[in-house]
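Why this split exists: single-chain examples teach little about how molecules sit against one another. For that reason, every record in the complexes split bundles all components of an assembly together and asks for one structure covering all of them. Below is a record exactly as it appears in the raw files.
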Amino acid sequence: MRIKVDAEKCEGHSRCYSLAPELVDVDDLGNAFELNDGEVPAGLEDKARLIVDNCPEFAITIEE
Amino acid sequence: MTDTDAVPCPVGDLATDYDMFDAGYVQDPVPAWAELRGTCPIAHTERNGGSWLPTRYEDVQAMARMVPELSSLSPLVVDLPEEIANDPATGIFSGYNSGAPISADPPVQNWTRRILLPHFTPKAIEPLRDYTERLCRDLIDGFVHDGGCDASVDYAEQIPPRLIARKLGIDESRVDQFSEWVRDAGELGQQDPELRVRSRKTIRAFFDAEVADRRSNPADDLISALLESEVDGQPITDEMVVGMCHLQLVAGIETTRSSIGSALWHFAGHEDDRRRMVDADDELWGTAIEELLRFYSPVTMGRNAAEDVEYGGVTFRKGDKVLMNFPGANHDPEVFENPDEVILDRRRNRHIAFGAGIHRCAGSNLARMEMEVALRTWFERIPEFTLANPDAVTWSGGQIRGPRILPVEFD
């Protein structure tokens, strides 16, 4: 499983970072980017779905 | 079509005559939103200067992105009278900008936001966590043996102004004044223009002096950091920094106080949820904070149509006030399963309590940290508490909704 953060849509809420710092990091403006090229480590698939379902900008997607 | 009576009367037809200051609406706006979503999802009223009220998530999300059609120059839900708005000393539309980026449109919004945001990322906020924990423990020490307290006045209200003061490098002895000023500028001032303008002048004079002081004596604080900012190679003006300090006060105090207070109100009255949080792990706290933000979203923002613009079958005329009803959007059953229930482990939760789009709340990570620390520290010391007198609880409404008097009791 891979996640992708759309930098055009992200407005820096940082909710993904607060829920899953294992999967994303944030830059100086709070905008998110994927760790590990978006590769979701085994066992963290639920967390990946959680940050997708909590993004108010619809900026995160999952690529199976 | 619309009721233009100046005298308040019971709200008749919500679609054309909602009243954001109606006592019943302030106490519990959820039924009104549900009715409007089904009958007239973009309602209108002539009350309080006139405004449009969307109630569907999809519409609020879309309107938050209608830039530049919907302007943020006056993000108040009740505009200042024109002569005050145009007053260079306190106004919005001329000279002194009272709080960019919140009260700005692009391009000013873009660069003011870029200057401010690095000071409010999760990593920039984390160093304040220890201080916040100490503060919350000290506050609780002050009333834990009294058998009860006012959870809004003695606790929730005490936390945000101290964080803002610390961030700005202002002596803690000023925080009671901060709270009074923002109450006069906001909760009370939204229905009392003279009080509002007096308070805005006070806040401005205070920060004029603080900013002038930091120009001469830079310190390790937000005011000094903002003064060092450059825009296209030019230093930022003192006046703009004064406006950004004003923003810290009016956006960072009553808002977070409301979220902390609403959460404590919820737990005081909901035994199952309260007991569940006593043993909550980090994951449950994570979703619970977001769920409480969703359910009790405190903030409604205002926009004004910059030109005649159509949306969803209605026409906003140039100058019309359009309310960013984030709280109502967060109860839309099209988006949230069982929206009128607090579900502490809710996993699908794209709430917009902090807004959406380019005006997303700049202080959201500070607010979230304060809320988490305030609630976790409370539960460590006071796991069991109930409302002392439900009839004594009061709520503020309009721009910022939350409990203002909240007596609770505990052993």
